[in-house]
Design a protein that fits this description.
7 strands, Arc Repressor Mutant, subunit A, 16 helices, alpha/beta, elongated, two-stranded parallel sheet, single chain
């Protein structure tokens, strides 16, 4: 979903610079199949997509997938596609009817509208592709208001029986349509796909928070130069110094506090894991002389650099 949203945002005209400012959308994250992009970032991307819409319901894009049992499996494995804490998918059976309910996380109403239209459109078009025939829902409902131009959305969904302002987003099918055997069904394939999905979910990692990304950038910069500037870190994160300071304040910290913490971390790493003399470590971490570094280490850990090094590398000579 993250890669799809990035592609849609680029198609909608989002610049590379603006895209780089949205958290968790860099190539290092999107290129890792085990990382799940948070729904909040995906919704920000959708916001750019809807800004180019002319009121026809851009969320209802086409794609392709399977039916009753397939819908149940989708609900079970929604976490392999999106954020299980925000994306909800449920199948309700009622006699001759089968209803699928879908909703996503919170954001500006137009953004949520676009994402949920996409989800409903995805279900219907995938059902048609899997069945190799024109399956039309009995009815569709959306939580949001009707688009200014409802015709294209109704055409895509295959019904004009669409309710807006409803309690939930739903698609209702005739049981006879969604319970019919699918052409090309391969017994045993579902078991293989379940095993793959289970493995993916077991190995999935949450994406780094913004503050964790900042700490990583600060640590890398500190390894390359003593006392990297605010501007240096901002450039690494694709943002401005003002925005960086504002985001730090939102996380209850300041640039001065974080810069000192990064400096301390780098100095202690060098003391513990290298045989560099103290004057060389002081120079690499921006301290005026070894005495200033000794005072700082004593303030941080209550021990001398020699004691800190002995604790990190037993048996080594003190600096």
């Amino acid at each position: 979903m993250g890669r799809f949203a990035v592609g849609a945002a680029r198609s909608a005209g989002m610049s590379g610079a603006r895209l780089a400012r949205i958290p968790h959308t860099g190539p290092d994250i999107l290129g890792d199949g085990l990382v799940r992009v948070p729904t909040s970032s995906v919704l920000w991307l959708w916001e750019q997509v809807i800004l180019t819409d002319s009121g026809t319901g851009v969320g209802a894009f086409a794609a392709s997938r399977d039916l009753i049992d397939a819908f149940r499996v989708i609900g079970e494995y929604i976490g392999s596609l999106g954020d299980p804490g925000a994306d909800q998918f449920e199948v309700v059976e009622d006699g001759a009817l089968v209803t699928v309910r879908y909703s996503t996380g919170t954001a500006e109403q137009d953004v949520v509208t676009a994402v949920e239209q996409f989800g409903i459109g995805l279900m219907i078009t995938r059902a048609r592709a899997a069945a190799h025939r024109d399956i039309r829902p009995v009815s569709v409902s959306f939580r949001h208001r009707a688009p200014a131009v409802p015709g294209p959305l109704a055409e895509l969904l295959g019904t004009r029986n669409i309710a807006y302002g409803a309690p939930a987003n739903t698609v209702t099918f005739l049981r006879s349509d969604v319970a019919a055997p699918l052409p090309g069904h391969h017994p045993g394939l579902l078991g293989i796909l379940r095993a793959h999905a289970d493995s993916t979910l077991a190995e999935a990692r949450p994406v780094r928070t913004w503050l964790e990304a900042f700490h990583a950038a600060a640590c890398q910069a500190s390894a390359e130069e003593p006392n990297p500037s605010l501007a240096t870190i901002a450039a690494r994160m694709g943002t401005t110094t003002r925005t960086l300071q504002r985001r730090l304040a939102e996380h209850g910290t300041t640039w001065r506090t974080e810069a000192e913490a990064a400096r301390a971390q780098r100095a202690c790493e060098l003391i513990r894991a290298s045989q560099l003399p103290l004057h060389a470590i002081a120079a690499r971490t921006g301290y005026s002389d070894p005495r200033a570094l000794r005072r700082a280490v004593r303030r941080w850990h209550g021990v001398s650099p020699s004691e800190l090094r002995q604790a990190g590398l037993p048996g080594e000579a003190a600096a």
